[in-house]
Amino acid sequence: xxxxxxxxxxxxxxxxxxxxxxxxxxxxxxxxxxxxxxxxxxxxxxxxxxxxxxxxxxxxxxxxxxxxxxxxxxxxxxxxxxxxxxxxxxxxxxxxxxxxxxxxxxxxxxxxxxxxxxxxxxxxxxxxxxxxxxxxxxxxxxxxxxxxxxxxxxxxxxxxxxxxxxxxxxxxxxxxxxxxxxxxxxxxxxxxxxxxxxxxxxxxxxxxxxxxxxxxxxxxxxxxxxxxxxxxxxx
Length: 235
Fold this sequence. Notes:
Number of strands: 13
Helix content: 25-40%
Largest sheet: 6 strands, mixed
Distance between the termini: 25 Å
Mean pLDDT: 90
Order of helices and strands: HHEHEEEEEEEEHHEEEE
Number of domains: 2
Strand content: 15-25%
Radius of gyration: 22 Å
Shape: elongated
Number of helices: 5
Low-confidence stretches: 227-235
Strand order of the largest sheet: 2-7-6-5-4-8
């Protein structure tokens, strides 16, 4: 369901009217703000790592994606929150040529100058830079840079924008609850309960995996990342 379809469902329940206002209307603008508040609630719920927010540097394609000569610092996606594991350098055929373990920034001082490793410098609020050691040798130049990282959620702005969550109807319930709260409507608590029920269901499905493939991605890079703590495992 895109933003327009979510708005239609929200407005029908809020006003019980068959005709939905246009995207330029005040009500649509209000709903967009409430929808993004719901996305923020989802993204930060109960320290949950949502599967939908994992991506890779190559898929995201907004950070530096290739090794350059004599360059040890590379920009990352502005949406990156946490990365862990390895940085993979691969050729045009997709064959991995180098794997660089990701270290915590505070551990870099204990490494020698010739060991291959990488770390991320910065924080989620101001952005990160990928740092690699040592200075790239000639055979590395031109290789593709890839690593898995956990993303910030995309906010909604246009009618055709799609939320990333598995059950976007959570946005409808959450927006209704906050709209009711703003107007001191007694149905606020009921709508909030509906939203929380959907959110808990999403979390249960997210964390359970399936019977043959439980969801767990180990992070062997350490206990902290950048300037903030990260969990030992991505769940």
